[in-house]
């Protein structure tokens, strides 16, 4: 399953620790028509539809235990939703963990923690 990563899992150390697998390689991807915002009251991001915005991230292929572990890490606030990504060589369908829009701090862009 192809999954678009756009937040804390972009850090290779966090991805390896949470997926339980080292060496996961992602391909740079852009998600047009969305923006990354803070999840209300949390240090994590989510995505909101936004026509003139785009989100840079990575697309990875996951299955089995690593996928289950990352799903548990994302928690109950997030659901896997279909998205269309732009890659250097075309477009690609994938899934992304996205929280319900009511949980987003709409005016607060997400920034990585120091």
Short description:
Keywords: Transferase. The protein has 114 residues and is of the alpha+beta class.
Shape designation:
globular
Number of domains: 1
Q: Give helix and strand order, one letter per element, not per position.
A: EHEEHEEE
> Residue-averaged pLDDT, rounded?
92
End-to-end C-alpha gap: 31 Å
Count the beta strands: 6
Radius of gyration computed on alpha carbons: 13 Å
Q: How does the helix and strand content classify structurally?
A: alpha+beta
- CATH level 4 superfamily: Gamma-glutamyl cyclotransferase-like
Structure characterization notes:
- With about 110 residues, the protein is an alpha+beta fold.
- The protein has one domain: Gamma-glutamyl cyclotransferase-like (Hypothetical upf0131 protein ytfp).
- The chain is built from two helices and six strands.
- The chain has a six-stranded mixed beta sheet with strand order 4-5-1-3-2-6, with no helix packed on it.
- The termini are far apart.
- The mean pLDDT is about 90.
- Keywords: Transferase.
- This is Putative gamma-glutamylcyclotransferase.
- One of its GO terms (molecular function) is transferase activity.
- It comes from Falsiroseomonas stagni DSM 19981.
- It holds the Pfam family GGACT.
Observed structural traits:
alpha+beta, 6 strands, 114 residues, Hypothetical upf0131 protein ytfp, single chain, 6-stranded mixed sheet
């Amino acid at each position: 399953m192809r999954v678009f990563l756009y937040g804390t899992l972009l850090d290779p150390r966090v991805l390896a620790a949470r997926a339980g697998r080292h060496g996961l390689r992602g391909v740079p991807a852009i998600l047009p028509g969305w923006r990354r915002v803070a999840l209300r009251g949390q240090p994590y991001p989510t995505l909101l539809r936004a026509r003139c915005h785009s989100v840079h991230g990575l697309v990875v292929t996951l299955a089995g235990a690593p996928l289950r572990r990352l799903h548990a890490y994302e928690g109950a606030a997030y659901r896997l939703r279909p998205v269309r990504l732009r890659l250097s060589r075309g477009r690609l369908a994938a899934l992304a963990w996205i929280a319900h829009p009511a949980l987003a701090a709409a005016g607060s862009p997400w920034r990585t923690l120091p």
